[in-house]
Amino acid sequence: MSVTAMSGPTLTPYRNLVAIVSLAGFLVFAILLSVGKGAVAISPGAFFAILGDAFGLTLPWDFTPREQSVLMAIRLPRVCLGILAGAGLAIFGAALQGLFRNPLADPALIGVSSGAALAAVIVIVFGGGIAASLPFVPQNWLLPLAAFGGGLACTILVYRIACQGGRTDIPTMLLCGVAVNAIANAGMGLMIFLSDDQQLRDLNFWLLGSLGSITWSKLLPVIPLIGFAVLCLPGFARFLNAMLLGEAEAHHLGYDVEREKRLVVLLAALATGAAVSVSGIIGFVGLVVPHLIRLMIGPNHMTLLPASAMLGAALMLIADLVARHIVLPAELPIGIVTACVGGPFFLWLLSRRRRGGGW
Amino acid sequence: MLAANGIGVSLGGNRILMDVSLRVEPGAVLAVLGPNGAGKTTLLNVLTGALSPDRGSVTLSGTPLSSWSRRDLAQRRAVLPQHSDLSFPFPVLEVVLMGRAPHARRSSRRQDLAIARAALRESGIGHLEHRIYTTLSGGERQRVHLARALAQIWTGESGACCLDCFLLLDEPTSSLDLAHQHSTLEIARRLAAEGAGVVAILHDLNLAAMYADQICMLRSGRVHACGAPREVIRPDSIAAVYGVTASVIPHPTRDCPLVIAA
Questions:
Q1: How far apart are CA A7 and CA A357, in angstroms?
Q2: For chain A, how far is it from start to end, CA to CA, in angstroms?
Q3: Helix ranges (DSSP H) in chain B
Q4: pLDDT digits (tens, 9 = 90+) for A92-148
Q5: How many CA atoms lie within 13 A of B178 on its CB side?
Q6: Residue A127 φ then ψ, to 5°
Q7: Contact, A202 vs A278, CB < 8 A?
Q8: Average pLDDT over residues A320-349
Q9: What was the ipTM of the complex prediction?
Q10: Which helix (H) or strand (E) holds B15?
Q11: What is the Cα Rg of chain A in Å?
Q12: What percent of chain A has pLDDT over 90?
């Protein structure tokens, strides 16, 4: 009880504005840090000058061709991916927690990420055959779309089993995630068994999550998919608030509950599937970020959703920075970094809940 | 006017409601009584539009509920649930503001805030505005939801209820102490005086007799008796519906019957 009382925000619009502006500032800071640090250091001035150059503007800062090629070919796609994946996973986590009416729903925990990854892995191993049978789907779209399908199927499965009669049974939801993860892991194990050496290296990346080895052409289909979901989900903020009261209450407040629920699940699976297809399974972002935002500015989805997207993007960039630098000259998979922070956080959440009181 | 005509509902092969008809006029409080399993909650679900009856229809202002848009309907009738499992730490004012959802884009933020605060004061918990919902007691939470339901159907900043609006209460007194039970039903009465219609599912015969204009007694899915408290609260109907022998005497201070279990 005392924890929630202590964290009670008084929620004036002024306070929300300060929080949103500081989060935006933090995101900009994370972007500048992320593009600047590395084997080739790039100053913020050079970063803006190179960006300006790409749009035909001349800015009063110097940069070398080497800086330019490193930024445009390596750093910038990686930073864009970090922003998209972080925002997508965090906003999906927040929306999913609203839908399930409890804050333990995380795309990776309840098996949505591994479902998406399994579908993506199947495409990697049998990619040639699948691509040949679907000639109308562009090659680089196949992976994100498959991951979207896998994620969607798992979300619906978990929701069907865990939510009965308009109530979510939290233990059932988490156990459901354990089962889905086990099935998906078995499937991925089978795919590893069937794969050749090159495929094996690609597969490894799914299992641990990484923002490395991204190219503009892989990133291109992901931008509209995640962008669309991230821009649309805040439109469901009032509905998700009403859902926290209960499904019957949301109905009494005039919402077409079934329709809105389906749309949220669809958008959320779109964001996760697309994020997983390019970055693999990165756990706990969708769990930790919305919770931090709730502690800062409260659980109202009107602010929670956009704020989660911003903090998710910023924290993903910081985590990637850690992953890139902690074992130089090698690189740690980012999934390990997020799990090291997120796992203990999850345990803390559970222990706090056991002591009683709300979330 | 909210009217149910010949409602029949079967759930899982069991006939829950059979040929139930009742009507609530604006300005009146209707209490629905009956033992557990008589179909009270199912009837309330039909009246809210959450459940479509197999037979019969419910009309609001003469139009069947199924022909109302969800949003227009939500602006005209609010429901106070028996209990709500909100487990996120919202400030009380924000919970009440959720009641304004059906008015989104038709009502300004300033107006929503004024109405939410007026509804909190009306529910007697104006001082809890900044408290966190999850830290409140059960009774206080129930009043927050009452304020939310009031905010949903209020129109003016002064706290005037819209005409021909309806408030449906599902056992509103179940988690309240004696003083709060009475003040909740007094709020329902005041709302009725302003022109709203109120339907309340109640368990306490004496509360119903004191506050309701009309009482509808359900017994195994049928209306056993419907009418003014004096006509319905009688030893024979109590024996028939509840299987309990009771004496009914005039209330010593109010103009209503008083039930004493014999």
A1: 12
A2: 9
A3: 40-48, 70-76, 92-98, 109-122, 138-153, 178-193, 205-211, 229-232, 235-242
A4: 899 988 887 878 777 777 778 888 888 888 888 887 666 666 666 666 778 888 888
A5: 1
A6: -50, -45
A7: no
A8: 86
A9: 0.89
A10: strand B14-24
A11: 21
A12: 24
Band (B95; pLDDT cuts 50, 70, 90): very high
Per-position DSSP letters for A242-259, written without gaps between them: HHHH-HHHHHHTT--HHH
Interface check for B177 against chain A (CB to CB < 8 A): the answer is: no
Phi and psi dihedrals of B181, rounded to 5? -60, -45
SS3 content of chain A, % helix, strand, coil (to 5): 75, 0, 20
State the pTM of this model.
0.86
Looking at the DSSP assignment, which residues form a beta bridge with residue A1? none
Does A101 sit within 8 Å of B85, measured CB to CB? Answer: yes
| CA pair distance A357, A5, nearest whole angstrom | 10
DSSP state of A225: H
Does residue A254 come out as left (phi exceeding 0), alpha (psi in the -120 to 50 range) or beta? Answer: left
Chain A residues 285-314 with CB within 8 Å of chain B: 294, 298-300
Q: Of all residues in chain B, what percent are helix, strand and coil, respectively (each to 5)?
A: 40, 30, 35
Burial environment of residue A93 by CB neighbours within 10 A (0 to 12, 13 to 18, 19 or more): buried
Angle at which helices A76-100 and A237-245 pack, to 10 degrees?
30
- Tokens 């309240």 map to which residue? B176
> Do A106 and A287 form a contact (C-beta atoms < 8 A)?
yes
Q: Which residue of B has its CA nearest to A9?
A: B91
> Does B152 touch chain A if contact means CB atoms closer than 8 Å?
yes
The Cα A108–Cα A181 span in angstroms is 8
Taking the Cβ of residue B26 and every Cβ of chain A, the question of whether any pair is shorter than 8 Å is answered with no
Residue whose C-alpha is closest to residue B208's, from B151, B240, B248: B248
| Peptide bond just before B250 cis, omega within 30 deg | no
Pair A184, A115: CB distance under 8 Å: yes
Handedness of CA A57, A60, A64, A67 (dihedral sign): negative
Q: Are B186 and B122 in contact (CB under 8 A)?
A: no
Query: Taking CB atoms and an 8 Å limit, are B135 and A298 in contact across chains?
Result: no
Residue A168 sits at the vertex; the CA angle it makes with A338 and A87, to the nearest 5 degrees, is: 30
Q: What are the distances in angstroms from CA A126 to CA A143, A237, B233? A: 11, 39, 75
Helices (H) and strands (E) in chain B, counts: 9, 12
